[in-house]
Specification:
Keywords: Hydrolase, Magnesium, Membrane, Nuclease, Transmembrane, Transmembrane helix. The protein is of the alpha/beta class. The radius of gyration is 34 Å and the shape is elongated. The chain contains 14 helices and 10 strands.
Amino acid sequence: MRKRMIQLVFVILGISMGYSFLPDLWFQLRITNHILRIPVVNALIGLVVMGILALFLVGPVEKLLNKLEKNLAKQQTEVIIAESIAIVVSLLIAVLISTLFWRSQLFFINTVLPIITMILFAYMGWFFGRTRLNDLMKLFGGRLNSGNRKKETEAVLERKAGDNFHKYKLLDTNILIDGRIYDLAKTGFLEGTLIVPNFVLYELQYIADSGDSIKRVRGRRGLDILNKLRSEKIVPVEMYEGDFEDIPEVDSKLIKLAKLLDAVIVTNDYNLNKVSEFQNVQVLNVNALAKSLKPRVIPGEKLNVMVIKNGTERQQGVAYLDDGTMIVVEDGRYFMNKTIEVEVTSALQTDAGRMIFAKPVHSKRGIKEKN
């Protein structure tokens, strides 16, 4: 269908150009053949010439249109509308400015300069429409959403309904692979709409198709978690079909989208958390939530742990709680791969996590027995 439409355009161009321009061309070339003065003959000549050109140009034009269709399909509807409006307004301004040049007798000023002006203003309109989407949507009385039509009462609002307004929650690749987002959503503590951008989904698919078996399992786990969230409808889950082709990194795209939608990023990535905070983007870190919910271990409390490796200092051993908290055991190297009872002496909280210091309980008993 696309190819036939392109061929039809070439046919119309050939006939119209032959009918309109060939008589002047014969006059300029001083060709006085009476047959060439017939409009139908000129139209047929134009059709033949354009038909020959179409044999070489239809393929490239079809590929160009196919690429354009794919790019438009990836764009969000609001972005396309905003870009189109901005381009039309810019072209109207360019036409008004070009009227000042049309009266000139110089070819460059009355012909070339208006064309250059229109090209520059069209590009400026496209750039403005792409980068100032929110402002344009507010200007025309709309609100940016992820593709679903809002209620009329919601469309009237021009600002957020206070600090407790439910913002969009953007999910990154790591939080889907982690899987805890599903359990968190089931508890009901996660409010609002969850948004999964297409570029995050593509990265998950790339990981799931990896040749590394470990990465492949992690990628498939992320896709399974996403499908469970959508199928069970615990919370609203929507897809963002847009992309930022000028930004290569997925994390940078996520931050850009969060700024565009005034959204919150949900992640467990420490580096993404820090970069987002630096760029004034709100982040919900699942690791920070888990750390805040960990039971507090107080000095004097007794625990049963297994020493699994040597510590950094002499005679120290290292054990771990079930939640991954590291315990540094004094004289623990003498109890390697053994489960012993230890008494907590102190706890240290760091940005990387919590560290507990303890010592074997039986060592105290041994001292008491000697006394």
